[in-house]
Write a structure and sequence with these properties.
Structural class: alpha/beta
Shape: elongated
Number of helices: 10
CATH class of one domain: Alpha Beta
Helix content: 25-40%
Strand order of the largest sheet: 7-1-8-9
Order of helices and strands: HHHHHEEEHEHEHHEEHEE
CATH architecture of one domain: 2-Layer Sandwich
CATH topology of one domain: Ribulose 1,5 Bisphosphate Carboxylase/Oxygenase
CATH superfamily of one domain: Ribosomal protein L1/L10, rRNA-binding domain
Largest sheet: 4 strands, antiparallel
Length: about 325
């Protein structure tokens, strides 16, 4: 039996439906039937994370992080079974490259000289200088250098070894000496063999950064004028220093000593002293004499605060030539 409109409105009111007398019987009936029909389960919204196009929040980065976490979890669990996702991470490595010894990678002249040196032997000074003259691997007159590893700490002021030595047979190098002194010392400096002499002239050269000299000698009175050039001269080892004998009132004597083979040496940051003691053309006897003069000077400046071994090792070599170990106990 069909219900009247009034009955349908009462039923819709009980169901709390939004219908009025303006709605037709068919509309009211459809609303009632729709309210009685079971509601379909809404699909659960998938949880999504905030992602970006690039960076650590990108989908690729998050996926890689998840795979890495999974690999770590398997590793901690003791799972050693290979997985498909590990294939890309496992890159097949080729054979280990074979590095040839240093001597084999050098030129023919060096390899020939290298064969003359017994690597398992330490030579006395005379033997080392004799061998050095035979292992010169250059076409020009090679320099002979000494390299001494000291047991000092250069960071300590009292262990920062620095001194000068006059080599009896000279250094074999042409030393250009500049003298920064007043006019009263110009004549004596020129007679002693100075290459550049002056006061205002030298300052003009420094203003233009023309460092066409190997040693700069100054009088104590003019040293304040060189203060503003410390950053220019200091890193190049050209700043006059009383310890090296380049700050003196007797400039003529300093120039003579510099021309005769007076050289400065100092320990570097690695606690090593490097010094050229002459040329191969000097011959073994003169080279050994220069070396002994240097070692006498080096022993004389041994720091008083040093408790351990002073000279750890000594090696000699020519320019681009092989190293020769020297027995320090024979000096």
């Amino acid at each position: 039996m069909a219900k009247t409109k009034a009955e349908l409105l009462d039923q819709a009111k009980e169901l709390k439906l939004e219908v009025t007398t303006k709605n037709t019987i068919a509309e009211i009936t459809a609303a009632i039937e729709a309210s009685k029909a079971p509601k379909e389960a809404e699909p659960a919204a998938e949880a999504t994370e905030h992602t970006t196009k690039a960076g650590k929040h990108s989908s690729k980065a998050q996926r890689d992080a998840a795979e890495e976490a999974e690999r770590k979890a398997r590793k901690e669990a003791g799972d050693t079974t290979p997985h498909a996702d590990d294939a890309e991470a496992q890159v097949k490595k080729g054979p280990r490259p074979v590095t040839r010894p240093h001597a084999e990678r050098r030129g023919k002249a060096y390899r020939k000289a290298y064969e003359l040196v017994d690597r398992s032997k330490t030579y006395n000074l005379s033997e080392a200088m004799e061998l050095a003259t035979k292992t010169a691997a250059t076409k020009f007159d090679s320099s002979v250098e000494l390299h001494i590893n000291l047991g000092v700490d250069p960071r300590q002021a009292d262990q920062n070894v620095r001194a000068v030595v006059s080599l009896p047979n000279g250094s074999g190098k042409t030393v250009r000496v500049a003298v920064f002194a007043g006019e009263d010392a110009h004549a004596a400096a020129k007679k002693a063999g100075a290459d550049i002499i002056g006061e205002e002239e030298l300052l003009k050269r420094l203003d233009k950064e023309q460092l066409d000299f190997d040693m700069l000698i100054s009088t104590p009175a003019l040293m304040p004028k060189l203060g503003k050039y410390a950053r220019l001269l200091g890193p190049r080892g050209l700043m006059p220093n009383p310890k090296s004998g380049t700050v003196t009132t007797n400039v003529a004597k300093a120039v003579q000593e510099a021309k005769a083979g007076r050289v400065e040496y100092r320990v570097d940051k690695q606690s090593i002293v490097h010094l050229s003691i002459g040329k191969v053309s000097f011959g073994p006897a003169k080279l050994a004499e220069n070396a002994r003069a240097f070692f006498d000077s080096l022993n004389s400046v041994k720091p008083a605060s040093l408790k351990g071994l002073y000279i750890k090792s000594i090696a000699a070599s020519t320019t681009m030539g092989p190293g020769i170990k020297i027995d320090s106990s024979t000096l």
